[in-house]
Amino acid sequence: MMKLKLKYPVLATGLLLSALGCKKDFLDTQYDIYNTPRSIATDRGTLYTFANAFYLPLPYGFNSLDGNLGAAASDEAQQTIVGSGAQILNQGALSPTNIPGDITSEYNSSYEGIRAANYYLDYSKGWQAFVKMNRDTITDATNYAKDKLMIRYYRGEAHIAKAYYYSELAKRYGGVPIVNNLLDYTNVQGIAKSSYDQVVNYIVNEIDTYKDSLAVSWRVSAYKDQMGRFDKGAALALKARVLLYAASPLNNPTNDAAKWTAAAAAARDVITTTGLGYSLYASGYQANFQSNNSIASGNPETIMAVRMPANTFPELNNYPIATPGGKSGVCPSNNLVSDYEYKGTPDPTNIFANRDPRLAATIVTNNSTWNSRTIDISAGGTDDRAKAGTSPTGFYLKKFLTDNLDVVNGATAIHSWILFRYAEVLLNYAEAMNEAYGPDALPAGYPLTARQALNQVRSRSGVAMPAVTVVPVTDFRTAVKHERRIELAFEGHRYWDLLRWKDAATVLNQPIQGVVATKSGSLFTYQVVNVANRKFNAPTNYLYPFSQTEIANSQGKLVQNSGY
Predict the structure, then answer these.
(1) Domains in the chain with CATH codes
(2) Which pLDDT belongs to residue 383?
(3) E strand or H helix at 530
(4) What are phi and psi of 110, to 5 degrees?
């Protein structure tokens, strides 16, 4: 099964921050791959070094599929790269012998993260004596106290890291093998997979058991330089997400109400737990994703983010090809664009005007200004769709990207990948509360109704969309799905939402659409066109297949997912 056959703790895949010129305030995930148990036993600093190792495989969503965002796997976007991994998913061609490399890497990286966490827990068992080694605990009392505090935190974080990696595996494969201890990796034998529900129970148990051994919130602690590590808020947000997935139709075919109430309670805990203090970013929706705003200690919306040194990944990949250095990349679909509501009266001369402000914050539309020029996708225009490499949909990505970044001459910007943010928690809460109690019920001990949570997101600074007023549970469910589509666009949720709702069989069998623009004077008219057909094989594609190599290596213990 998983290829974890390392004699010593050598976790050699992933993106080392040092390779990107990391700064001291970034999470340092370097480790010496030549260390052996005998040599590291004399070095107290390894209690910190190996506490960083299990963070190395955390996903950096800006390069999750084809070296870019994963949006092209869903109806959010179309990838401009021909022969991309996204196309394997788009064409329903996924099989045990035809798996995009990024998917294989995710699988392997998750188990590497689990192994690193298990190693740390095993290695640090005697940490109380370890931190006393070769020091005077009286004269060095301050550092000694900090070491004791941090190692307690780090051991708790190792458990939450395992829970996180198993959550990523479970949403892809359903049931997976649980490796809960250090095995002899020179003689790995096959491990039978646990059921999906068993994996969920394992995750929840890890979080419930160890959440109080974590820092409550690194953002408001004396150690803000530790931001990027798991804290209690991140652990609770993970639990809320996992239980929401477990309650959803894909994983809850009998619609067990107890699963929805558990999901609602878990999301409530993120909102009400003392010391977390999360709220929506007051400086506005678009600003939340720009530069270092998402990781600023003054931003109460980010719960946890993967921090990286300044780079140009999103800009190089997704600037229009007519912008120097751009590759067009992941191009938003008209399927998505048309779902942005009108906030005011439709303008027949500009179909993108008077829409939900999140449209302009997320997507570059025709005749708008981007990188100090006006986008023109019409015939003969700078961004004419007939030109090689331009957007096939007529739209370009804006969210996350820095405007006017001179990528050709080496300019860079901070791009932290948000793993959990408060807006998602509110939407998780709204969905679970609606399914468990209805849109307006307020059980004792709950701070918000489903409607209040949903409308809190819609009324956020810089958005101010009208409140949702629909009453029936079914209509409110539709409103929640819409809000997730808009608020969380390109953040890596859409594909998994479609799967867990069992909407993928409908949505991912519809063509991806774009627009063709015709220019007359200064005005444009638009025609909606089909850009690419999509195919989703239900029910098979609701889970990923294990690779044929993993099946063979398991010696008959790993059972392939149904349909493959």
Answers:
(1) 1-65+100-214 (1.25.40.890)
(2) 98
(3) strand 523-532
(4) -60, -45
List, for the chain, all residue ranges whose pLDDT scores fall below the cut of 70: 1-43, 183-189
- How many other C-beta atoms can be found within 10 angstroms of the C-beta atom of residue 12? 10
Residue 427, helix vs strand vs coil: helix
Count CB neighbours of 101 within 10 A: 10
537 φ, ψ (degrees, to nearest 5): -90, 105
Is residue 397 within a helix (H) or strand (E), and if so which, with residue range? strand 396-397
Is the distance from CB of 324 to CB of 440 less than 8 angstroms?
no
Measure the CA–CA gap between 84 and 513, rounded to whole angstroms.
19
Q: Three-state SS for 454?
A: helix
> How high is the pLDDT of residue 44?
77
> Tell me, what's the pLDDT at 161?
98
Please state the separation of Cα 495 from the chain's center in Å: 11
- Token pair for 249: 């139709």
Joined tokens for residue 449: 């109704």
Give pLDDT, residue 265: 98
Residue length of the chain = 564
The C-alpha atoms of residue 446 and residue 456 are separated, in whole angstroms, by 15
Question: What single DSSP character describes residue 5?
Answer: -
Q: At what angle do helices 422-437 and 257-272 cross, to 10 degrees?
A: 140
Q: In 3-state terms, the chain is what percent helix, strand and coil (to 5)?
A: 40, 10, 50
- The pair of structure tokens assigned to 183 is 């095995």
Provide the residue type at 509 as one letter. N
CA–CA distance, 560 with 563 (Å, rounded to integer): 8
Helix axes 232-247, 196-210, angle to 10 degrees: 160
The closest alpha carbon to 405, from 293, 286, 312, belongs to 312
- Tell me if 394 sits within 8 A of 516, measured CB to CB: yes
Which run of H or of E encompasses 490?
none
pTM of the model: 0.92
Beta bridge partners of 420: 304
Looking at residue 183, its pLDDT comes to 60
Residue 43: predicted pLDDT: 65
Nearest alpha-carbon partner for 363 in 77, 73, 55: 77
Q: How far apart are CA 260 and CA 393, in angstroms?
A: 38
The single residue listed with the structure tokens 């307020």 is 442
Please calculate the CA angle 255-163-277 and round it to the nearest 5 degrees. 85
- State the pLDDT at residue 189: 54
